[in-house]
Amino acid sequence: MTHVRIVDQTIRDGQQSLWGMRMQAGMCLPVAPLMDRAGYAVVDLVGSSMFEVMVRHAREDPWEGLDLIVQAMPRTPIRGGLRAHGIISMSVTPEALMDLWVKRLCVHGVRSFWIHDTLHADRNIAKMHRRAKVAKEFDAEIVLGLMYCLSPVHTDAYYAERAEAMAASPDVDSLMIYDMAGLLVPERARTLVPAVKAVTDRLGKGLEIHSHNVTGLAPLVYLEAIAQGVEVIHTASRPMANGASMPSVEMTLNNLRHAGHSHGIDEAVLAPIADRFEAVARAAGFQLGVPNEYDLGVYRHQIPGGMTGTFRNQLKEHGMEHRLPELLEEVARVREELGYPGLATPYSQLVGTLALMNVLNGTRYASIPDEVLHYAYGWFGAPPVPIDPEVMDRIDAHPRARDIRGSSPPDPGLEEIRAEFGAIDDDELILRALVAAPHIDAMKRSGPVARDYPLVRDPVLARVRDLLAESRAAHVSLSGTDFSLTLSRKEPA
Amino acid sequence: MAHIEYVDQTMRDGQQSLWGMRMTAGMALPVTPLIDRVGYRVVDLTGSSMFEVLIKYCDEYPWDGLDLLTASMPNSRIRAGLRSNACVSFAVTPDALMDLWVRCLYRHGISSFWIYDVLFNIDKMHRLAKVAKEADAEVAAAINFSNSPVHTDAYYGEKARLLAASPDVDTLLIYDTAGCLLPERVPGLVRAVKANAGGKPIELHSHNVAGLSTWTYLEAIKEGVTILHTASHPLANGPSMPSTQILRHNTRLLGHSDSLDDRLMAEVEAHFTKVARTAGLPIGVPNEFDLSAYHHQIPGGMTGTFKNQLAQHGMPEKLDAVLDETGRVRRELGYPGMMTPFSQLVGTLAVLNIVLGERYRVIPDEVIKYACGHYGEPVAPIDPAVMDRIAAAPRFREIQADPPQQPSLEELRRDYGPELSDEEMLLHILVPPAEIARAQAAGPIERAYPTLDSDVARFANELLRGSDAQYLEIATDAFAFAARKGAA
Fold this sequence. Notes:
Helix content of chain B: 40-55%
Low-confidence stretches of chain B: none
Shape of chain B: globular
Number of helices of chain A: 23
Helix content of chain A: 40-55%
Radius of gyration of chain A: 23 Å
Oligomer: heterodimer
Largest sheet of chain B: 8 strands, parallel, barrel
Number of strands of chain B: 11
Radius of gyration of chain B: 23 Å
């Protein structure tokens, strides 16, 4: 039987999947010491998109938030994540900036990294190894992601072969099977895991698994993966688990016990942690994780949950909500034509945008965004299989093709980048590369990071607040025989 | 590609699993004419336990409610369920009364019956099927699924052969109470049943306890099952069955057809969601996959009962111990399927064993009756050491010497009171006369249920319920609202 180690995803992918990355440091700080004592192998925490969201929407300095959380968790290694060639959504980030990002995270106390790119192209793996080398200078753990998706190309042999290339660097400690859309089923885990495990065993690397419980099958996938030799799995605290997120740590431990496996988690701390995140979710109006019904549509389109929501909103703006099924079909078709990129950032956006344009324009490939041209001309690395020739012809015929073909993404050195942003420290430089200046200025004006988050403990008051939000009235007064209450809306700042 | 038919469980097992059978006729009547037209093969509706609950807790006279409901669904085949030898949890009901149940239910609009017995008293199941068939009703004979070393595919194949042998049985119903039928078990099980079904259709009913039932259904379709038991969204999932909506979605993606009307389904869904919110009853949510469900096979509702019982004894921390003990007791008692009355029987004994700190120190009468074969033959022999403990119980001899009687209907009428109608007599077996009188005195059945469909109204309702106030007034610039507690 296996001693299973747990990577906690509550405050990274849990909140990314359910809260849209809106978790402020103060929301988790009061329970961070408990999380530190739980016995997790790693607590995943940081990503550049979350930095972006923190600045933009919470006006909170993410470096300061990171420092507070790292200080509150002295025992547990904190993980940061990055794509091999980008920290800014749809573009290729200069190498110098990528290196700087890794270095600064290390300086701020990040001790574990997961690095990925869904194309798994040779060039991208070389970039992963370069990132790994930088982090290894700080003695951080390095985990590279094998991004799981379905296509005729993405066979067990493909993953084994890519695993071999990824594990080739001495700086890599582990590989991770990363099932971002919840497409992995137990039956496939039975063949995929041994194929990859053979490689990691031979090269002396560890193997983790991360599966989004989109269809409700991730807990079974974990049990199967463990049976096939995986020892590290990813879970989240109950309110931050399930639905688009991973399985809950609570149920996972129960299942491990019943399957005869052991774990080193102190279960006593789990309830107060879950209570905290549930209370925050309720107070902030965030989604609580609930398991999904088993939906075969997930396998058909392979579209991450968040993307479907975005599509629905975009179609709504055009009064075309009823065309969602058609759009989802188009996504699958465009993905095939573009050589089956796995649908994670930036390829999910790239394929999604193109599919949306195809549907809205009524003519396929009538307009092609620059990012698709970048992709077609190899800026992001080679696709798993070549782009469909007819589609490639359409791309070649595009007016911008001449400019982009044969070019490569701008790759200024650190000095050039520094010169562009002026005399600021490296942390601020990274923030300014991620978000526009006015957001940074607003963040700076908003003062130090809050250490806590106000919870509305009284359910009655919570409902009154909802009522106020619903009524659009300037004030709400409630009077019962034994109480009266008046709430007035604050004038907007 | 197959044409999939659905047995609607919204008003029967959906609400039994999620609402503790507290659905009154008025909660359903506003949408039963819609349900009647959705296109279900069968609408499951009632059973004796629901009669009991309606009288005891809802002050509703169930025969009157049933009449209104069946009259509002003239196009549907409406189903009721029967245990082969009992209508009250632990007792054994005389055959004459069971037959009378069938005849009375038919008289009140039931034209389909599902008959079950975890211990497979085939003779009794066939006798009830015959009575139902005399009334021209459809009969589904249940094969209760359970996991144990004895419950093999061959075991179920043999039961299927025995059940299907009666010309009065129309369909076989694979019935997975505890949600422990795994997708991987489906091919073996369904093939074994199908091979012995004599060409009779197979229905599948699985509680989505582990979150895998939808998948289980899709596997079963591959094996030729085309009749699925599902519930409208708010009454599906969790301890209930998968939703009709998700099955329809998935089967359509696979290219299968059905006769369901989406628009009507949406109206029914919206209605029951409103009722649940207003009444403060739970709305079904899928469960996270739970491996322990396979280990102890405890029906969803029972875990809640255990928690309450342990809380009463001040031992809330013993839940895991009781769950493990349940699995052990079930094995020692010869693996009865975990369904009424055996789930209660095994569960009660497990709680006693843990709470008293000594196994089998107290043995309830019902366990002795079970050991004496009063409910039928156990699936596997009782563990000899445990059988010795049971035989040593003070009440053993007395109970062994007093097997269930089979009085005639005339004798029963004389005992219960010749002045009672058939319907009243049946109710008297279920509940004390005073409670029946109270339900009758409560007046005519409510034909609707006041649903509060605005957040503001719901809020006021909650606030009133949660406070001592009798009167509540909410005023904003946009509206004013006043509510008073209790009857006007």
